[in-house]
């Protein structure tokens, strides 16, 4: 085996390499084509008058958007979504950034345990801890309320901010803070005038990632939301679940609105972060600072 | 706790954090106030994650009636309950293995930066960001009997009848690939790009062909990343919920364990049983993860960078 692999045949290698490249690119193309098909099906159906047994609909209309808006009370749903997302982003930044600072700057006994504590909510899938969490929230009469939904969504986002910001803060030279202190700055002014400006790009990136993740967070919101605290993705789930009650185009119109909301923020987020950072937390740290 | 114990702690903290030194000579600073910044974060995770988990664990052993193990006995004696473990594994394991098997060679191929790499990774982030609910809704139309997928296959005379790809096992499987493959790919890509290419070049200069380079150089270095990716992708697939309901057959072949837990909690209002199922779900995930990490321990351990730091 080893001997075989060591014997080289340049011409054969080149052919195999070319074949291999085309297989890889072929698969990628196939995958992306299916993606376009999935998104395209939703988008086309949302503007179709009737689309049953043909490649494309019989005609096009935008009326499904207005009917979806009324049927699914999208005005309310969007308001709730905005409230939840804003609250989650603000609170996770307010809790997460200071905690990340302490973790980045200090060594203390039990630090590894604290890191593990923050890692666990990101590793355990939401549906697993969501059911006990929802039970607890209902016990404290928070289940089904806006507060409950916000609290549940904080569980993965606060650790996310902490674990994203810690390496970011570690790379900022502590002597900058020391210099500010020499000139008499208190902790708060060090934060306000030295750290926050330096951390701004990192905080912005973390907040945008939290925002995108919270809009798309289905499980936790689904398990804790009541009738008037549904976010867009949960409302979409219920309407797909009850397919047949409403016109499919109406459901797809809502799906398009959801896609536009998500993709709008994704595009903004991608101006500040690398796409891989959305799945793998900050690996390549932003340069500068 | 005695007071001497507390001072010892204070000393240790002060020494470790260096606050006593910096805090001025006259004022003894036994406690570093910076650490207070951690309190809200820890409190939040303890109250909203650890406490519910512990509460759920206790609740699962205190059913409304019967002995402490009643829920677990019931779970493992009714095939419609314990069967969900295997239903879920039967979806999660093949999809995870397939996603990783597809992602490794492709990530390996694309580890060198090229024009359009960012565009490609962006395109792959889209299904992850949109989430399973939207992908399920899209697949329902796209894979349906009159959808574009079947139409293209029929137009190419590859099939005579539309394939039944929704409301069954395959629908859920395909949704797990649509969201799982990009996730696996991006995770592995971030690991692969962390391996110093000069290691592969060194092997190549000694005559190793691409496959041998991959087998003997990259694969061992990639093992920790692969193990981590496997765990994350598997855990996500094992907790599949919306697509199993919307795209699958939630009463039969895709009645996954999260559906059983959800039904117990929100249809029977048996929170004790629901907690027990959630605990079983967590335990199965833990078992698989431990198995993967033990297997991973038998591979090479060491730096993935070149000789020079």
Automatic annotation (TrEMBL), chain A:
<dbReference type="InterPro" id="IPR000515">
    <property type="entry name" value="MetI-like"/>
</dbReference>
<keyword id="KW-1003">Cell membrane</keyword>
<protein>
    <submittedName>
        <fullName>ABC transporter permease subunit</fullName>
    </submittedName>
</protein>
<keyword id="KW-1133">Transmembrane helix</keyword>
<keyword id="KW-0997">Cell inner membrane</keyword>
<dbReference type="GO" id="GO:0005886">
    <property type="term" value="C:plasma membrane"/>
</dbReference>
<feature type="transmembrane region" description="Helical">
    <location>
        <begin position="255"/>
        <end position="273"/>
    </location>
</feature>
<dbReference type="InterPro" id="IPR035906">
    <property type="entry name" value="MetI-like_sf"/>
</dbReference>
<keyword id="KW-0812">Transmembrane</keyword>
<dbReference type="GO" id="GO:0055085">
    <property type="term" value="P:transmembrane transport"/>
</dbReference>
<feature type="transmembrane region" description="Helical">
    <location>
        <begin position="146"/>
        <end position="166"/>
    </location>
</feature>
<feature type="transmembrane region" description="Helical">
    <location>
        <begin position="16"/>
        <end position="44"/>
    </location>
</feature>
<comment type="similarity">
    <text>Belongs to the binding-protein-dependent transport system permease family.</text>
</comment>
<keyword id="KW-0472">Membrane</keyword>
<dbReference type="Pfam" id="PF00528">
    <property type="entry name" value="BPD_transp_1"/>
</dbReference>
<feature type="domain" description="ABC transmembrane type-1">
    <location>
        <begin position="78"/>
        <end position="269"/>
    </location>
</feature>
<keyword id="KW-0813">Transport</keyword>
<feature type="transmembrane region" description="Helical">
    <location>
        <begin position="84"/>
        <end position="104"/>
    </location>
</feature>
<feature type="transmembrane region" description="Helical">
    <location>
        <begin position="116"/>
        <end position="140"/>
    </location>
</feature>
């Amino acid at each position: 085996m080893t001997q075989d692999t060591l014997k080289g045949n340049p011409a054969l290698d080149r052919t195999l390499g070319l074949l291999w490249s085309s297989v890889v690119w072929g698969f990628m193309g196939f995958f992306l084509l299916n993606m376009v098909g999935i998104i395209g099906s939703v988008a086309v159906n949302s503007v179709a008058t009737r689309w049953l047994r043909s490649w494309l609909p019989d005609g096009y209309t935008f009326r499904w958007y207005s009917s979806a808006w009324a049927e699914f009370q999208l005005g309310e749903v969007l308001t709730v979504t905005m409230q939840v997302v804003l609250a989650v982003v603000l609170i996770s930044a307010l809790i997460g950034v200071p905690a990340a600072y302490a973790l980045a700057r200090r060594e203390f006994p039990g630090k590894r345990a604290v890191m593990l504590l923050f890692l666990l909510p990101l590793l355990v899938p939401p549906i697993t801890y969501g059911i006990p969490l929802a039970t607890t929230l209902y016990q404290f009469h928070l289940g089904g309320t806006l507060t409950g939904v916000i609290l549940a969504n904080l569980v993965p986002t606060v650790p996310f901010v902490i674990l994203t910001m810690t390496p970011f803060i570690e790379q900022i030279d502590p002597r900058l803070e020391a210099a500010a202190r020499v000139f008499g700055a208190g902790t708060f002014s060090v934060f306000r005038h030295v750290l926050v400006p330096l951390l701004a790009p990192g905080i912005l990136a973390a907040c945008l990632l939290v925002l995108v993740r919270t809009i798309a967070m289905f499980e936790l919101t689904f398990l804790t939301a009541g009738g008037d605290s549904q976010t867009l993705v949960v409302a979409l789930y219920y309407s797909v679940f009850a397919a047949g009650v409403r016109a499919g185009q109406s459901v797809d119109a809502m799906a398009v609105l959801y896609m536009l909301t998500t993709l709008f923020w994704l595009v903004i987020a991608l101006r500040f972060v690398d796409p891989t950072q959305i799945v793998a937390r900050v690996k390549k740290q932003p340069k500068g600072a | 706790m005695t007071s001497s114990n507390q001072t010892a702690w204070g000393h240790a903290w002060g020494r470790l954090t260096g606050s006593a030194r910096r805090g001025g000579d006259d004022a003894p600073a036994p406690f570093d106030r910076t650490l207070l910044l951690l309190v809200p974060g820890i409190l939040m995770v303890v109250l909203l994650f650890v406490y519910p988990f512990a509460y759920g664990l206790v609740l699962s052993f205190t059913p409304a009636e019967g002995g402490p193990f009643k829920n677990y006995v019931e779970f493992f004696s009714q095939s419609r309950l314990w069967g969900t473990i295997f239903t879920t594994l039967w979806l999660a394991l093949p999809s995870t293995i397939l996603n990783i098997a597809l992602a490794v060679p492709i990530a390996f191929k694309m580890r060198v930066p090229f024009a359009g790499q960012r565009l490609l990774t962006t395109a792959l982030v889209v299904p992850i960001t949109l989430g399973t609910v939207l992908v399920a809704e899209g697949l329902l139309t796209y894979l349906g009997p009159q959808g574009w997928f079947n139409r293209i296959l029929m137009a190419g005379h590859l099939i005579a009848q539309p394939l039944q790809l929704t409301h069954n096992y395959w629908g859920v499987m395909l949704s797990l690939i649509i969201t799982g493959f990009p996730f696996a790919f991006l995770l592995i890509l971030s690991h692969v790009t962390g391996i110093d290419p000069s290691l592969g070049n060194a092997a190549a200069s000694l005559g190793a062909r691409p496959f041998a380079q991959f087998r003997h150089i990259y694969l061992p270095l990639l093992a920790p990343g692969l193990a981590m990716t496997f765990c994350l992708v598997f855990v996500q697939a094992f907790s599949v919920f919306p697509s199993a309901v919307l795209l699958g057959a939630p009463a039969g072949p895709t009645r996954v364990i999260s559906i059983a837990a959800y039904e117990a909690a929100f249809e029977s209002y048996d929170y004790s049983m629901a907690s027990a199922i959630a605990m079983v779900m967590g335990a199965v995930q833990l078992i698989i993860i431990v198995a993967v990490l033990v297997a991973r321990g038998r591979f090479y351990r060491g730096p993935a960078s070149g000789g020079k730091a």
